[in-house]
Amino acid sequence: MKEKLVIVESPAKARTISKMLGKDFNIMATMGHIRDLPKSTLGVDVENSFTPKYVSLKAKAKVIKELKDAVKNSKAIYLATDPDREGEAIAWHISEVTKANLAKPKRVVFHEITKEAIDKAFKNTRELDMDLVNAQQARRVLDRLVGYKLSPLLWRKVQRGLSAGRVQSVSLKIIVDREREIEKFVSAEYWNIEALLNKKVKSAAFKASLAGYVTKGKLEIHNEAEAEQIKKELEVSDYQVLKIKKKSNLRQSPAPFITSTLQQEAWRKLHFSAKQTMVIAQQLYEGLNIEGEGEVGLITYMRTDSTNVARTAVAETRDYISEKYGPAYLPKQARVFSSKVKGAQEAHEAIRPTRITRTPDLIKKSLSTEQFKLYQLIWQRMMASQMSPAVFDNTTIDIEAKHQPSKTRYLLRTTSSVNTFPGFTIVYIEGKDEDEEAAQSSLPPMEEGEELKLKSLEASQHFTQPPPRYTEATLIKALEQYGIGRPSTYAPTISTIQEREYITKLKGSLKPSELGMLVNDLLVEYFPDIIGIDFTAAMETELDKIATEKLDWVPIIRRFYEPFIKEIEAASEKIEKIKPPEEELDELCPECNAKLVVKRGRFGKFIACSRYTKEEGGCRYTRSYQIKTGAKCPECNSDIVEKYSKKGKIFYGCAGYPNCKFVSFYKPLSKPCPECGALMTKSGKNWAKCTKCGKRKKLEDES
Fold it and tell me: What is each CA distance from 578 to 425, 515, 519, 596, 605, in whole angstroms?
């Protein structure tokens, strides 16, 4: 056994580090957490200062034994878990479980997995930071108290399988509140009038929109009759240029990514979910096998709320910009960004490439399609952050349309924006499609007082629109602005409320289900503070102070828990049993001719008679819940449907069961194999495989 032991969480991280540290080190991975609060009980001793009762995870028994043996035979122990509060807590758990604490292990922290960063980290080891550990413990204990007290209440009063949580329930409330705004919204009719004009001398025509009156200000057109009356007057009006305003605007480049902005942009540009983005970012951070380099970490740590960047990385980026694009694209001074996130810890660097000269095209062959797309996004954003601003010449022209008979002076306005220097946009355009941003408008040269000719008028009807539903990107932005949750919580929070079927995705937008609205309304009525935005944000700040100001975490939890438990007791007495909404099917019960409905049991959804009851006199008809996949059974040509096992696991089987017993644990695809016409099933994230000839096909090719 080697004398130097390094413990990390991930096997991928272990592989990358081992090639950088060399033969003197034994690198071991915990495969994630090895200790946590028990699943079956509260696991918090409320009467004894909220002491958490941690248990070693049964699934990690073999890993723990191997770690203990390695610790005994090592003279130096390094805990190299992730560089955040959760990583610090995991390092502490490892130390406690393996008894490494007796050997005084050294904490190693690095924000990127490169040879230089690893060497520097091992030269600057430290002890475990118990303030960071306690900050994480406090969050874990608080979330356990909320979840394990509220969730059973929902089970008793609504239905089994529901859950509530400190951040989860506030996120649901934000989505439900927006839906209620949409439901209450009353659309109003309005009309716009647009004129096509040109100069008296031959020139290109341009459009100008009716903006109001020259002297009276705003003009609102509520119906077609009003629009037609104004249009008639404009048709016989005299037009001349009233005012020309020109301004050169600088559009500064955006800051490098933090967790939330990466998730938002990955959704906008790549349509990656928050969860998908974080999984891919983790792979890029922990290291991939790059042709000509071997295992290397490609980006810095991906859970961060800081826009800070190391001086060496800034210098490298500026050198690359100067060489690639020339001095015009390089500001005189390096750009420095301050965080706009409420309660930002600023503990880490922003998310950036570990080496800017490792361009996306250079390593494309070594990456999957998704890895390449996300790496390219991160690389472009870092490049753009240190580039010169884009320059736009903006022109606004006010035009008077004077109706001589009535002396009414209408105001029309036209604008143009011409990009005179691309600056950072040559590399990256924030939040918009490149085609949209590239579109430029220009106007013919004009002078104040110049007369214009009217070519045509167009009146168009519009209706005011309700506020849009949240997408994953806009919900993350809202949570960040309110100060709710932290970088590591956004993706799992959104995943949880989807898995609980509190929300559904509708063309990328998050729509609350009837069940989600029912649960939200119940929590709002009986626990207004717990799921209040201001209360939750204030609690986040208190929890942060445990680490930043070295506060004792127990009094913070006690101040929360004592009124909370009284609310739980009161709600338990007041809330009557609520019947959750049931989805009616366009199908009648084969036994009693009543409507069939979708119900939920301890193992998920099932179909039952609407008169279903276990008591005497009711109908007992039930069957498994099935969703058609669009594929046909290769054995009998019936539909293949999605089913649930007794343990709630999804599998795929023939709708003709029990006559046909075809089963697949891989999702069938509707399109048959292009080679032999047999059934294709999903095989991994991006591939499909034929069940007969074994032909593999990229899922991108599937419509």
Answer: 55, 11, 10, 20, 18
pTM of the model: 0.83
Q: Which of 575, 260, 647, 251 is closest to 421 using CA atoms? A: 251
**Most confident of the following: 382-386, 602-606, 672-676:** 382-386
Query: CA 473, 476, 482 angle in degrees (round to 5)?
Result: 140
User: What is 621-633 written as a DSSP string?
Assistant: -EEE--EEEEEE-
- Arithmetic mean of pLDDT, 452-471: 96
Strand partners, 675: none
346, pLDDT greater than 80: no
Structure tokens at 67: 């770690």
Nearest-10 crossing angle of helices 472-482, 490-499: 120
Q: ∠517-522-524 over CA atoms, to 5°?
A: 90
Cis preceding-peptide flag for 152 (omega within 30 of 0): no
What pLDDT was estimated at residue 701?
Answer: 40
Which residues, 6 or more positions from 665, have their beta carbon under 8 angstroms from its beta carbon?
Answer: 651, 652
Q: Which of 301, 410, 428, 502 is catalytic?
A: 301
Cβ atoms of 434 and 276 closer than 8 Å? no
Q: How far apart are CA 619 and CA 607, in angstroms?
A: 13
- Give the separation between CA 246 and CA 415, rounded to whole angstroms: 10
Q: Dihedral (C-alpha) 549, 552, 556, 559: value to the nearest 10 degrees?
A: -140
Could you tell me if 494 and 516 are in contact, meaning their C-beta atoms sit under 8 angstroms apart? no
- 581, 492, 524: which is closest to 177 by C-alpha? 524
Residue showing tokens 């004792």: 552
Alpha-helical (H) ranges within 287-330 are: 311-325
The reported pLDDT for the residue numbered 117 is: 92
Q: What pLDDT, on the 0 to 100 scale, is given for residue 440?
A: 45
Q: 106 and 80 in contact (C-beta within 8 Å)?
A: no
End-to-end CA distance of the chain: 53
Residue 703 pLDDT: 30
Token output for 577: 């049993």
Let me know if 301 is a catalytic residue: yes
Cα 390 from Cα 441, distance rounded (Å) = 16
CA distances from 596 to 219, 310, 317, 433, 555 (A): 55, 62, 63, 46, 52
Helix (H, G, I), strand (E, B) or coil at 550: coil
Please state the φ and ψ torsions of residue 245, each to the nearest 5 degrees.
Answer: -125, 120
Report the C-alpha gap between 135 and 165 in whole angstroms. Answer: 18
**Angle at the Cα of 171 (from 166 to 172), degrees rounded to 5?**
105
CA gap 140, 53 in Å, rounded: 12
Rounded to the nearest 10 degrees, the angle between the axes of helix 168-184 and helix 514-526 is: 110
Instruction: Tell me: pLDDT of 330 over 60.
Output: yes
| 3-state SS class at 25 | strand
Query: What would the mean pLDDT of 662-683 be, rounded to a whole number?
Result: 85
Mean pLDDT of the chain: 90
Q: Which residue has the higher pLDDT, 179 or 622?
A: 179
Cα–Cα distance between 20 and 163 in angstroms, integer?
A: 44
Strand partners, 687: 698
> What b-and-e string marks burial along 74-86, b requiring 16 or more CB atoms within 10 Å of the CB?
bebbbbbbbbbbb
Rg for the chain, CA atoms, rounded: 31
| Residue 549: HSE in the Cβ half-sphere, 13 Å Cα cutoff | 8
DSSP 269: I
